Amino acid sequence: MSKERDDYDLDELRALVADLDEAAAALRAYGETNDVPAIERGATRVEGTLSSVKQNVPGALARDGAFGGDAEDEES
Amino acid sequence: MSRMWNPMLETMDRAELRSLQVDRFREQVRHAYEHSPFYRRKLDAAGIDPDDIRTYEDVREVPTTKKGELREAQGGEPFPYGDLLAASPEEVTEYHQTSGTTGEPVRQADSWGDWEWWGDCWATVLWAQGIRPDDRVFFPFSYNVFVAFWAAHYACERIGAEVVPGGNLSSAQRVRKMREVDVTAFASTPTYALRLAEVAREEGFEPTDFAVDTVVCAGEPGASVPGTKARIEEAWGADVYDHAGATEAGAWGFSCDGESVGLHLNEGQFLIEVLDEDGEPVEPGETGEIVITPLNRTAQPYIRFELRDEIGLRESAAVCDCGRTFRFAEGGVLGRLDDLTKVNGVLLAPTAIEDVVRSYDGVSDEYEVIIDGHEEKPDLDVVTVVAEENPETGVPASEAGDELRKRLKQTTSITCRVDVVAYESLDRPELKADRLDDRRENHV
Ligand SMILES: [Zn+2]
Fold first, then answer.
1. Nearest-CA distance from A32 to chain B in Å?
2. Is the Cβ of A69 closer than 8 Å to some Cβ of chain B?
3. Nearest to residue B368, comparing CAs of B418, B403, B300, B328?
4. How crowded is residue B241: how many other Cβ atoms within 10 Å of its Cβ?
5. Could you tell me how many helices (H) and strands (E) chain B has, helices first?
6. Count of A-B CB contacts under 8 Å
7. I want to staple B108 with a disulfide (CB 3.0 to 4.6 A). Which of B96, B148, B296, B400 is the partner?
8. CA-based nearest residue in chain A for residue B159
9. Is B138 exposed, middle or buried, given 0-12, 13-18 or 19+ CB atoms closer than 10 A?
């Protein structure tokens, strides 16, 4: 997706949030597995920030993120 | 769990690290050149094109930045940072300033990204010193424009440790809060760490009974002064760590949990040059002055900033067993060049007096140094060290005074007058202690 775009529809916005979510989770997992706290804790911080972005994108799923699996459990 | 916040950087091969630093230095200079009129003028005058910086030798062609230049630049527009600012004023989210102990304060603008960077630098420090997500860290600090404890606070948050803010409380209230919630660590100046132990005893507690196992010091060099470090360790029954930083540059050095006394240089986030009087790099084993460039700053960058701190450079592997490749300042900051003063022609470092006083248990923790002209021979300088009786050892004042005078002479080669006064006669500052009172007229 081009950086200059400013006309995302809601589905695309949700997809962007999901991409960020996935990238942050992957970074956190990398940091955990390879014992690099700067990456693991930094990614956890991104996930925390992302959770507030999600709150502002209608329909974006409040899953995973900084709170581990708790949010998913609550949804079910 | 890793002993290092970022082992990828902290154990990086030296040649790779050097190349990474040069690349980041070039980007930092380019950013400063493109966004700060102050730096554009300087770099243009020196004929520097940021794109030409390819090697460590090229770095040394770039002009250094002095503290006086910062103050001068901040007198202009845009208020209050002047054209040192390398971002739009709207991007600035954090205001701090230097203490102004050596002149007019320098104001520090940071963007959100800069502030994240500060937190990361401090996380490097705190992680190396054993702070982990299960720690509860107390900040007995009246939160204000002094940057260090703010950044440490946010670094704890970054690490995942729990922060207990201790601003706007009396020392007695702070001690009770520490006890009440069982804090496992706290951060303060070395002076205040000692003061809190005194207050704890006054409040009927024994500080070694507290859950505190780590004391992180900042703001004064005390935790690398062996006499002071030992006193804090003994008072709290805790490991005591040092850090070095500056409001302008950031937190650039840290002691680790390895077998060494001194500071690793955070070479992942800073390009730190250690130079001799002619501006040439010193070799490991030699002493030099730090010229520093933080490598990831947006709002107010520092390009080859003359820090005026003197260190003894060592290769890490020679002095520390922690595995870091970051070079090492043995014994911490040996002297702030701005703090050194000449007494009857002899160079005096205030930390030398500190170590003597704090290594002798005949006197208490607090002291003051007054330098004045001799009553009858004004050309002669007289150094008076005022120390306090130590109620714990009960050494009589006259005896303590004689012993202290002897030890000061041995260490500093200066014959001092020593005045041992009653316990708690002297002030106990919470922030940086200004213990040197130079009353000499016409002294530069
Ligand atoms: Zn080490």
1. 9
2. no
3. B418
4. 26
5. 13, 21
6. 30
7. B96
8. A41
9. buried
| Domain range list for chain A | 10-75
Tokens 């440790």, residue located: B161
The DSSP symbol for B220 reads: S
Nearest to A64 by CA among B293, A56, B170, A54: A54
Q: Nearest-CA distance from A55 to chain B in Å? A: 21
Is residue B336 over pLDDT 90? no
What digits encode the pLDDT tens for the residues B283-318?
A: 999 999 999 999 999 999 999 999 989 999 999 999
Residues in contact with B322: Cβ distance below 8 Å, sequence separation at least 6, in sequence order = B3, B4, B128, B256, B257, B258, B260, B264, B316
Instruction: Answer whether B42's CB lies under 8 Å from B70's CB.
Output: no
Residue B289 structure tokens = 């002055």
Residue range B1-337, CATH number: 3.40.50.12780
Query: What ipTM was reported for this prediction?
Result: 0.81
Residue B209, CB-side half-sphere exposure with 13 Å CA sphere: 9
Domain B341-442 has CATH 1.20.120.140: no
**Which contiguous run of DSSP H or E holds residue B263?**
strand B262-265
Angle at B316 between CA B310 and CA B322, to 5 degrees: 125
The beta-carbon neighbor of B2 closest among A37, A44, A45 is A37
Chain B residues interacting with chain A (CB cutoff of 8 angstroms): 1-2, 4-9, 120, 123-124, 127, 158-160
Considering the entire predicted model, what is its pTM? 0.85
Interface test with B, best of A44, A45, A49 (most B CBs within 10 A): A45
Mode of pairing for the β-strands spanning B287-294 and B417-421: unpaired
- Report the run of H or E that residue B95 belongs to, with start and end: strand B92-97
Tell me whether A30 touches chain B (CB under 8 Å).
no
Sorted by where each begins, the domain ranges of chain B are 1-337, 341-442
Name the amino acid, one letter, at B235: A
